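Much of our argument rests on the idea that a fold can be written as discrete symbols. Part of our work consisted of pairing the sequence of a single chain with a tokenised description of its backbone. No coordinates are needed to read the tokens, only the vocabulary itself. The record that follows shows the chain in one-letter code together with its fold in token form.
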Amino acid sequence: MKVGILQFFGWRDRSVPLHSVYETALERFSIMDTTGYDAVWLAEHHFSGFSVCPSVHMMGTMAAARTKRLRIGTAVSLAPFYNPLRLAEEVALLDVLSGGRVNWGVGRGFERSEFAAFGIPGEESGPRFHETVEIVLKAWTSQRLTHHGAFFHYDGVEVLPKPFQAPHPPVWMAASSIPAIEWAASQGHSILMDPHSSRTDLIKKRRHYAARLSDAGFADGGRDIPMARLVAVDETADKARAVAKRVAEWTIASYVGPRHANVRQGTPRDFGGKDPVDYYLDDVMIHGTAESVIDQIRSFSAEIGMTYLMAAPMSGRSFRLLTDQVLPRIAG
């Protein structure tokens, strides 16, 4: 199993200097480079303390400078918020500077406040996302780009640099809703699976993706399909659960709670009919001692055929124990 880290940049305690959030992440990158992780996946968010990394490409450059072998993933570049040519340039430049270590994950986004602040109507999010992905891939594989679409028009533009990896970095689409999964499958794109779906939903979505991929004439075998899971590891189950509970409460209040209306369906708005915190603790998160977490990961892998775990550690201690005690037993 490949194991990567989904790196959020949460600023929960405003009494803590903001720069310490970045310093902690940079220290992790160096550790990850020598301990068997496949990639760090950088989460882009805007206008919220939930994750204070508005530029995954700038942060990716710092990650590349601190490491030699670790792959640099975006999870995700929020495509509707970019001019597609600028996005193509930035990701290609990161690929060149990192020596061809970029994993490009791209997504539509769903937080209403982000779209409002950037002045993008919610109903345009899907079409803008699809057209931006099309343009970026064209820009990387064409000597000069010509494109005339609903939102963007270009004639003979030479987009430089081209990516280091030929023909371009591996590409994944963030897909948590059924329409997003079906669109990605119809185009033959691999997908990233989100950290907020329950295990049951994740299994259903993974099977649905495989079926739709086959219907579109594409093979499912040999693909890395990273599945993101929030992970808390501690010396006792109670301590790990306490960490997970704090993060569940923070996540609900900051990111997917009732006051955050989404521009599309697909995020866990109803929490499976459960109390939101219980939903996360019982159905979404992986938490416990190192041995218990290993067992949970292996069980989930056997049930769904997971070959790539994108773990989001819920504390500094979770990251250390995941690295020291869990990773050596599951990675390979």
